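STRUCTURE:
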């Protein structure tokens, strides 16, 4: 679910609750004399759905904040505005009542109190910007604590429909007063809400002149079947459906991208359904989109005006049990993840990464036209290691673009999926649907292309600012920064995923064109090798640039006996002092200013960055410094010549009419390859900001006596760190939590995990022993080389690798890149 920035915080001292008297005793310890505190921090009390404040629960209440978020997301929500919780407080503040009010007296006050002139003026002004209601208004209460995942408050507070403009204030007062009803008091007591004063906003919207209306549940409500949805409908405004006094028509649908009607139950004596199949399908698709956007199963109120299905309310379903997972046989793989997170991911990193990565991927597939139900997890941890649900990816790739599972599996690392069945021949309609999705994909790629430079610059600016401010940030500001971290991180992660898709899609198209130029029988291996040459040595690629800069540093080192002696000693902790005043030291500082956010296995925030621990860089520079210029591990001009020769070879093999298409696909593949690689560097800058946040929090908690070392912070989840900073976690509880996490890590580390498994939890990994002296695998670049095979398990073993050897490594984390350039060949696990 998208998170929106908070620009408002209610004063902590808002309401005085001395002279307490519980609500269910029908008297309340509320004095109007206390109310001015509520509005001490003045801001507009009425905002349209377009305003940022309208998405805040503290300002707009649960119902209003949800409607505003949906409206801003472009979903069909009738135009409207919010009277904030401060509006109710302002009305009470005008009443000179020094004594606490009982429940009935407070209700009467809310029903009869005059409206402040400023509030009436604000409402009139906002309603003017919204425009007059074509028919009438709908006025709905929106309490701060309603429409939560744990308590819906459905039907507890007042909604008033079909209201003329001159009757608006009576309806608004009725909504405020509904906070004081016995039903509301009893419900608050039942769910444990102890608010003693009204925190009630009000929603004012255009009323939809509905031909039919009702409710929809994105999970079948009786049995909790998460693969089905239910829509209920009745003529008119649908009030009887919501209140339960009318028996509605009911439609049961599949919760899939191509929503299908499974069952229709009409209400006698009706002979014809209120909704046509097309309307039912459109409404079902809208419900799927709504659940995907909100991130949880939804109870939706809707209205159909003959043209548009409108959403008038949406709240989480609070009555679902933990139903059996209908997708227990999903296939899980760590093929792509183990390159960047090869070990056990730290709890802090995972607490930030899981919701952002899962959310960004859901947004990506929804934008492509394939919303994924929230009960289908996309990424999970098993025994401390992250895995992707490749069953979902396979289903989505075929539904969107017709990519068979075996090809999708190869793109994910060449993993064979168990139990895959042959697919039926696609129909013409299916092929046309794929074409439509492909055109949509091109649009997504173009938008990502145009947004990339701006977003790169924005992340660069945030990273530079964070390095200056985060190490010294005060506690309150740090808590706010932690809350807003996902607001920055998830949109950029989504951009990175779009660029990755665009690069992969164009690369596949390019390889297909290349394969057409090859003699029959040369196969995919030659095509893959030749395609790789077409995108080799492009220049302006961050990961390659850092290796070139390290080579330049090694040339500087050769010119200084002092630097060479420093590199040879093998102890580099005092490098700043020992290299002060040298050209090498100044160049190294410039390198760290640009690439200091990188590191070994840098996706995990628990791992130090190069600016903190540059020992690995010194090892690489020392190795490079032993080479002569003729032994340089890379030759950009030669790479450019190879690329140009490959282009000429492909052009000669293509008919003239295909050559313009080839040039276009080649150009886009090269552009997206460069952008995707550079976006990874900026993504690591955001990860680095997360590490800086954690380290600053650790310093504060060490000062508080809650932590013994700063490194322990990464064994805590983000929400636990925030609780500790707010003083909600004591030292004893925190230490028990840390001990538990360390024990879990030791247990997880002792397990050998499989790359691929089926089901909910891998019990053990079957270790396959290859017989003989030959390893087989997938080619990733052209060429043939003979040499000594050097097996390294960590980039920190760099000194063991000699120039020209074949590097055998477990992953392709960017930390390995300088060593890749030193080796003559590379073998790695997929």
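SEQUENCE:
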């Amino acid at each position: 679910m998208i998170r929106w920035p908070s620009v408002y915080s209610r004063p902590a001292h808002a309401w005085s609750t001395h002279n307490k008297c519980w609500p269910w005793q029908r008297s309340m310890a509320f004095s109007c004399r206390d109310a001015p505190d509520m509005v001490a921090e003045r801001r507009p009390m009425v905002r349209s759905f377009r305003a940022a404040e309208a998405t805040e629960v503290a300002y707009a209440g649960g119902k209003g904040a949800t409607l505003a978020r949906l409206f801003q997301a472009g979903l069909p929500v009738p135009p409207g505005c919010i009277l904030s919780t401060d509006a109710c407080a302002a009305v009470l503040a005008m009443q000179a009542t020094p004594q606490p009010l009982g429940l009935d007296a407070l209700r009467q006050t809310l029903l009869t109190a005059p409206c402040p002139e400023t509030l009436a003026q604000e409402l009139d002004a906002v309603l003017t910007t919204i425009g007059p209601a074509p028919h009438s208004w709908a006025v709905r209460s929106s309490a701060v604590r309603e429409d939560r995942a744990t308590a819906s408050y459905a039907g507890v507070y007042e909604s008033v429909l079909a209201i003329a403009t001159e009757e608006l204030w009576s309806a608004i007062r009725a909504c405020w007063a509904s906070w004081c009803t016995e039903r509301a008091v009893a419900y608050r007591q039942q769910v444990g809400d102890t608010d003693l004063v009204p925190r009630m906003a009000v929603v004012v919207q255009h009323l939809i002149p509905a031909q039919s209306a009702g409710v929809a549940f994105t999970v079948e409500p009786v049995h909790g079947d998460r693969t089905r949805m239910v829509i209920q409908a009745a003529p008119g405004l649908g009030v009887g459906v919501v209140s339960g006094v009318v028996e509605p028509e009911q439609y049961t649908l599949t919760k899939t991208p191509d929503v299908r009607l499974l069952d229709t139950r009409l209400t006698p004596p009706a002979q014809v359904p209120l909704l046509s199949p097309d309307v039912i399908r459109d409404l079902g698709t809208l419900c799927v989109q709504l659940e995907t956007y909100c991130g949880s199963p939804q109870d939706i109120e809707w209205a159909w005006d003959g043209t548009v299905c409108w959403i008038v309310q949406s709240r989480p379903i609070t009555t679902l049990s933990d139903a059996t997972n209908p997708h227990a046989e999903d296939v899980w793989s760590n093929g792509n993840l183990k390159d960047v997170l090869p070990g056990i991911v730290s709890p802090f990193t995972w607490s930030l990464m899981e919701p952002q990565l899962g959310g960004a991927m859901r947004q990506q597939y929804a934008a492509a036209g394939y919303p994924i139900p929230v009960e289908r997890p996309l990424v999970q941890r098993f025994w401390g290691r992250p895995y992707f649900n490749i069953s979902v990816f396979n289903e989505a790739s075929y539904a969107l673009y017709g990519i068979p599972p075996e090809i999708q599996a190869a793109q994910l690392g060449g993993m064979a999926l168990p139990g895959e069945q042959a697919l039926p021949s696609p129909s013409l309609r299916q092929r046309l649907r794929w074409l439509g999705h492909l055109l949509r994909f091109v649009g997504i790629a173009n938008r990502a292309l145009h947004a990339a430079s701006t977003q790169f610059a924005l992340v660069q600016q945030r990273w530079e600012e964070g390095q200056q401010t985060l190490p010294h940030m005060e506690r309150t500001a740090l808590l706010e920064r932690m809350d807003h971290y996902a607001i920055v991180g998830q949109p950029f992660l989504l951009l990175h995923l779009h660029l990755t898709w665009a690069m992969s899609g164009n690369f596949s198209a390019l390889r297909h064109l290349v394969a057409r130029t090859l003699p029959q029988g040369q196969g995919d291996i030659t095509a893959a090798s030749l395609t790789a040459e077409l995108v080799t040595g492009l220049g302006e690629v961050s990961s390659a640039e850092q290796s070139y800069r390290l080579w330049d540093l090694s040339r500087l080192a050769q010119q200084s006996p002092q630097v060479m002696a420093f590199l040879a000693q093998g102890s580099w902790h005092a490098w700043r002092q020992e290299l002060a005043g040298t050209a090498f030291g100044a160049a190294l500082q410039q390198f760290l200013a640009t690439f200091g956010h990188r590191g070994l296995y840098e996706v995990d925030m628990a791992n130090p960055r190069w600016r903190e621990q540059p020992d690995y860089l010194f090892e690489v520079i020392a190795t490079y410094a032993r080479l002569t210029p003729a032994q340089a591990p890379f030759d950009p001009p030669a790479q450019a010549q190879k690329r140009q020769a490959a282009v000429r070879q492909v052009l000669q093999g293509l008919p003239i009419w295909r050559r313009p298409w080839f040039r276009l696909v080649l150009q886009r593949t090269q552009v997206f390859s460069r952008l995707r690689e550079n976006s990874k560097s900026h993504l690591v800058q955001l990860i680095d900001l997360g590490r800086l946040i954690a380290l600053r929090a650790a310093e504060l908690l060490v000062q508080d006596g809650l932590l013994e070392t700063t490194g322990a912070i990464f064994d805590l989840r983000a929400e636990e760190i925030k609780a500790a900073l707010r003083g909600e976690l004591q030292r004893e509880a925190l230490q028990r939590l840390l001990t538990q996490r360390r024990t879990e890590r030791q247990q997880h580390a002792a397990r050998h995990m499989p790359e691929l498994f089926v089901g909910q939890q891998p019990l053990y990994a079957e270790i396959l022993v290859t017989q003989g002296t030959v390893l087989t695998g997938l080619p990733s670049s052209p060429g043939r080389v003979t040499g000594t095979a050097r097996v390294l398990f960590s980039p920190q073993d760099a000194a063991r690798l000699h120039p020209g050897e074949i590097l055998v490594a477990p992953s392709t984390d960017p930390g390995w890149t300088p060593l890749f350039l030193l080796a003559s060949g590379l073998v790695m696990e997929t």
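REMARK: Confidence is low (pLDDT under 50) at residues 1-41, 321-326, 763-770.
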